[in-house]
From TrEMBL:
Stored InterPro entries: Calponin-like, Calponin_repeat, CH_dom, CH_dom_sf, SM22_calponin
SMART domains, sorted: CH
Record has Secreted as a keyword: no
Cellular compartment(s): Cytoplasm
Calponin-homology (CH) domain span: 24-137
A Pfam family per the record: CH
Superkingdom of origin organism: Eukaryota
The keyword Cytoplasm belongs to this UniProt entry's keyword annotation: yes
Keyword annotations of the record: Acetylation, Cytoplasm, Muscle protein
Originating organism: Sinosuthora webbiana
Gene name, Swiss-Prot/TrEMBL: Tagln
Name used for this protein in its record: Transgelin
Length: 200
């Protein structure tokens, strides 16, 4: 990547606002989940935003995470034997994770850009993606999620209702309250004051 000097002025303000969105408590929860999901072999990062970024930067931990959410025999991301050392290979590994996360069901708006992680531009976006992935895993409840289910919010699920023909016919006879009602509607007792006096 290109060497960048320090940011000044508005660029610096924007970057500091982005960095303030990073949540250290959320980092601890995500680390606990990743270790529970992938096993102790993935290790643990140094505390803090940059430690978390270095831990995830080569894409191997992320790839193991998303693979662990799938049943055996259908792992979406190929993990190389040796962690990639070349920059473009590491970025490619992150891109494979992002594609697998999207295929798993993470919404495009919840997915970070590769440079957000690789250059530590927006680590809060990385946290949002991992939170969305964890929420989906808890919601699917297919036996592949490991860890405390209370770490993530369960997503709302569809609750389909089946009505019989007779119930549907009965519903057509009822006027819903949102359409208004005219029961007891009259202008009796209403007064608008004295009529206008026109004198010629």
């Amino acid at each position: 990547m290109a060497n960048k000097g320090p940011a000044y002025g508005m660029s610096r303000d924007v970057q500091s606002k982005i960095e303030k969105k990073y949540d250290d408590e959320l980092e601890d929860r995500l680390v606990e989940w990743i270790v529970a999901q992938c096993g102790a072999a993935v290790g643990r990062p140094e505390r803090g935003r940059l430690g978390f970024q270095v831990w995830l930067k080569n894409g191997i931990v992320l790839s193991r995470l998303v693979n662990s959410l799938y049943p055996d025999g259908s792992k979406p991301v190929k993990i190389p034997d040796a962690p990639p050392t070349m920059v473009f290979k590491q970025m490619e590994q992150i891109a494979q994770f992002l594609k697998a996360a999207e295929d798993y069901g993470v919404v495009k708006t919840d997915i970070f850009q590769t440079v957000d992680l690789f250059e530590a531009k927006d680590m809060a976006a990385v946290q949002r993606t991992l939170m969305a992935l964890g929420s989906l895993a808890v919601t699917k409840n297919d036996g592949n999620y490991h860890g405390d289910p209370n770490w993530f919010m369960k997503k709302a699920q569809e609750h389909k209702r089946e009505f019989t023909e007779s119930q549907l016919k009965e519903g057509k006879n009822i006027i819903g309250l949102q359409m208004g009602t005219n029961k007891g509607a009259s202008q009796a007792g209403m007064s608008y004051g004295r009529p206008r006096q026109i004198i010629s």
